[in-house]
Design a protein that fits this description.
This protein is an alpha/beta fold and 195 residues long. The chain has a single domain, classed as Rossmann fold. The protein is globular and about 45 Å long. The structure holds guanosine-5'-triphosphate and magnesium ion. Guanosine-5'-triphosphate (GTP) binds next to helix 1.
Length: 195
């Protein structure tokens, strides 16, 4: 797979707008501001393919990035952002749930959490949904560069315990740590799903 061949193919709200390119989807889930869009930019070696912002709530649609005619990486709106209106929250939750429940080609969801914080109840719920859907959980701990080296293992252990997972991939969109591990996971998911 040529990872430099990535293009944004659709920004969608409704299922009828989802691309029909017959490729499998791997989606990214996580709280607002955790670094989902930044991870896509880092994976693709591009600075501003996906729009990123320091204020939460940047990605407000379900965005499909087609990688080398092989897989759609899907950037979802974030959840858990306290400062938006109830109506806005409901709209985003609805978009996320509709996507997760309706998208036939979905083969896994990568769960992103901020390495500095204990995963929230929303994160736990999200991971439960991933498990119930029959997917093997993949947890990525973002913003590793924000911790000192000596703090990383302790932070990873808290995430493992809270989400009951055996492995967590430490990742930094800023420095590139964990990028090849995430590509390895994507390739494994594709292989195991028969692609
Ligand atoms: N230092 C550092 N900052 C990061 C990293 N990843 C993301 N950020 C910053 O965190 C902020 C949010 O990043 P986004 O990629 O927009 O987060 P998101 O999860 O897509 O957010 P929503 O679209 O609002 O759901 C931005 O200011 C990024 O520059 C990282 O690995 N290290
Ligand atoms: Mg985003």
């Amino acid at each position: 797979m040529n990872i430099n061949n990535v293009k944004l193919v659709a920004c969608t709200v409704l299922p009828c707008q989802y691309p029909q390119n017959k490729l499998p989807d791997i989606a990214l889930a996580g709280r607002s501001n955790v670094g989902k869009s930044s991870l896509i930019n880092r994976l693709a070696n591009r600075k501003s393919l996906a729009r990123v912002s320091s204020s939460p709530g940047k990605t407000a649609t379900v965005n499909f990035y087609e990688v080398d005619n092989t897989v759609n990486i899907v950037d979802l709106p974030g959840y858990g952002y306290a400062k938006v209106s109830k109506a806005e929250k409901a709209k985003w939750a609805n978009m996320i749930e509709t996507y997760l429940n309706k998208r036939e080609g979905l083969i896994n969801v990568l769960q992103l959490v901020d390495i500095r914080h204990k995963p929230t109840d929303d994160d736990v719920l999200m991971l439960d949904w991933i498990r119930r859907s029959g997917f093997s959980p993949v947890v990525i701990a973002t913003k590793k560069d924000k911790l000192k080296k000596s703090q990383v293992q302790g932070a990873i252990d808290i995430i493992k315990d809270t989400l009951s997972v055996d492995t967590v991939i430490p990742f930094s969109a800023e420095k590139g740590d964990g990028c090849s591990e995430v590509w390895d996971v994507i390739n494994t998911i594709l292989k195991e799903a028969g692609f």
